[in-house]
Design brief:
single chain, alpha+beta, Outer Surface Protein A, domain 3, 2 domains, two-stranded antiparallel sheet, DUF2063, DUF2063_N_sf, DUF2063 domain-containing protein
Length: 267
């Protein structure tokens, strides 16, 4: 690509995206009306992408409030990636910080975090899942150094409110059906972690108890089975109960399809 063409593209992108003046020689004829159309279409398309990525949040806020939030986000965080799929990655942090005045309740930030986690889980790469038979074939002495690997779609999200019931109600509501929007009570403050992942072609989620959240965090760090048992013992205060808890968690992760590998810790 010639330097001249690249400069023309940069100027045109700045004129559409940032509202910059195009300057002399870039556009011919009566260009003002046409440029205004492109500017509007650009912002409208990104706003639609944001609404698609944050379906439940958009339903909770309503069209007018969501549009105001989305346009403020677009001004503060212009899209810088080739794919609009990733536009909105920082929306929850934006809501919790600079855009607090546009957020009627702090729990809406958690709805946004949940929306984004589930989209991330759905779009993650595929990997063959770990099968129970692989673990069943392990020799007893191999368990202590066993290092599990989570599938790429596993998302763990820290939430400050118990938003899951509200999220479910709004997700199941179809505005086009003509049914009234569900009446929701403000979620209670409840610091916890949410687990989201993809199982086949379906996204799944569940709220995590502190022990399982700690075990998943340990797996994500690459800690071995013996380390998981030590972590469980710190929570439960009993080594035998800890080992049983780790085995139970492992069995659940296999059923849920959270694991893609099991290796031995490097010596």
């Amino acid at each position: 690509m010639s330097a001249g063409l690249h400069e023309q593209q940069r100027r045109l992108a700045a004129a559409i995206r940032d509202g910059a003046e195009p300057g002399d020689g870039l556009l011919a004829g009566d260009w003002a009306a046409g440029l205004a159309v492109y500017r509007h279409a650009y912002r409208a398309r990104l706003l639609a992408a944001l609404r698609d990525n944050y379906t439940v949040l958009a339903r909770a806020l309503g069209d007018e409030a969501f549009d105001a939030l989305g346009l403020a986000y677009l001004d503060a965080q212009p899209s810088r990636t080739p794919s609009i799929r990733w536009f909105g990655a920082a929306l929850a942090d934006f809501m919790a910080g600079p855009a607090q005045d546009l957020v009627p309740h702090a729990a809406l930030v958690d709805l946004a975090r949940m929306d984004w986690a589930l989209r991330q889980a759905f779009d993650a790469a595929d990997e063959p899942l770990l099968q129970a038979g692989v673990l069943a074939a392990l020799a007893p002495q191999d368990w202590a150094g066993l290092v599990l690997r989570l599938q790429p779609g596993v998302q763990r999200v820290a939430l400050a409110h118990a938003v899951e019931p509200a999220w479910r109600s709004l997700r199941e509501w179809e505005p086009e059906s003509g049914d009234a929007q569900p009446e929701l009570t403000p979620p209670e403050a409840h610091a916890h972690e949410l687990l989201a992942w993809r199982q086949g072609l379906e996204t799944r989620w569940r709220s995590l108890e502190p022990l399982e959240a700690a075990l998943l965090a340990a797996v994500a760090k690459g800690l071995c089975f013996a380390d998981l048992c030590e972590e469980a013992a710190r929570h439960l205060g009993d080594a035998e109960a800890a080992a049983a808890a780790v085995v139970a968690a492992l069995q659940r992760w296999l059923v849920d399809g959270l694991l893609v590998g099991a290796d031995q810790r490097a010596s």
